[in-house]
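pipeline/complex-builder :: batch 7 item 3
reading input block
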Amino acid sequence: MTITDGRQTEPAIGPADPVAVDQWYALTALDEIPVGRAVRTKLLGVPVSYCRDHDGAPLAWLTQDSLPAGAPVDARTLDAPLPTMADYGYLWTTVGEPGGALFDIPETAEPDRRILNAGTFGIFTSGPRAVENFLDMGHLPFVHPGVLGQQPFTEIVDYQVEYRSSEIYAVNCLIFQPKAAAASTSGQMVNYTFRVPHPLCALLYKSTPEDDVRLDVIGLFVHPIDDGRVRAHLFNCLLDTVNTDGQLRRFQQGVLAQDKPILENQVPRQLPLDPDAEAPTRADKTSNAYRRWLSDLGMTYGVVASTQPGL
Amino acid sequence: MIKLYDYLLSVNCYKQRLLLSILDVPYERVDIDFYPGWEHKGAEFRKINPLGHIPVIDDDGYVLWDAHAILVYLASKYDPTGSWYPVSDPRRLGEVASWMLFAEGTTNTASAARLHVSLDYDFDLEACQAGAHRLFRVLDEHLWFQEQQGQEWVASGESPTVADIALFPDVALSEDGGISRLDYPALRRWTERVQRLPGFIDMPGIFPVAKAPA
């Protein structure tokens, strides 16, 4: 679990939001990280750098002047190394004290899964806006017509939202999709489950054309550069014996490129948590649960905090 | 059949798909793993284009690279009306050449900003955005004066040319690079006219427009 009990002291670095700071964040897919050469970025506004060492192990550190972008890196000379993990194909790090392991994705242990980063794309939005869009079924027929939805089949029938061990689950989410996956050959009613195990990571489970029982798993892991700009990683853990990695990526990248301008047109970039801030509909049940969950956690980074007491 | 070495999210590849669709020319797509594979920079692809750029076309053994050169070739060969690349009209042809060179500028500013924001390309974002705004201002004024004379396209004449195709995606996707088109009304009207052309296809990130009133 990544959700901590919440410390009372302010984080030493980064924004004054222990909920946001005390998390693991995926910076980049491991196989996209240069070996022995520094890459600079920001995490929660804090300048950080990363690379892989010559054994392939990930390194991350608070950016130091002596290591500009592209500079050769010797792990022994890092002034302020950060903790790292290599999980699900990504380098994860933190500028806080997560106090626990990353959330589990049991499907990644199945040997026939195709696990890959479909792509990492920068978007001018906040982490919570990106996650909320990922959870939103209502936009699919409008933003991804002909692929993940189709007008006039825009109705979202009622579904259930549950809290299970500090995570959000939305189950029995049904929608008609003309091309639900790269492996689809025809339209189908698709059953989705959404899962939010981390303030800025979400997963969806959906039926796959290739297996009657098991589900495709697709994740959105957000790297918050600051509170108005993110890099969104599209994690794939699929059952697909037909498509090449390139074809799988083409499908997912096309979907994300359709979402990017929608997110960039949302004002403000930070997600309002006040229940009255944006008019919800039934399709927004998961979104409402997510906003309430962030409020309950006390998240203040990348959101417009609710002014209503007791929510 | 024409082979197009393609990447879905490349504006320069999209220019070719758009013109091929408008001219109703069949082609075969060869998907290049541009990102994250950087396949176009690899040794295999450099045998096709030593510059390591896409798009490239292979038309029955005739290989051509450079997005705007390919537009010129496709229009010259596959447009029986001769209107998309008007070789019979020296003045219009000069305008088309001029605006296609201008489009190199929008690609190097507006589309460079998009690559920086989306894929972390090492460009100076503010310089790209400022450069794009300078060019958009010029194009917006030009299109406004065109409209005053009953002209709808960047080059004079009744019909669009490859210059419109060369400019369109850099403009239509500018917000991906943080470049707002709010201040360029003539530019926005022109993008809608392009989107209403028969045979128009979009690419991910371009908002569809409502159908024109009958």
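note: Chain B has a mean pLDDT of 96.
queue -> next item
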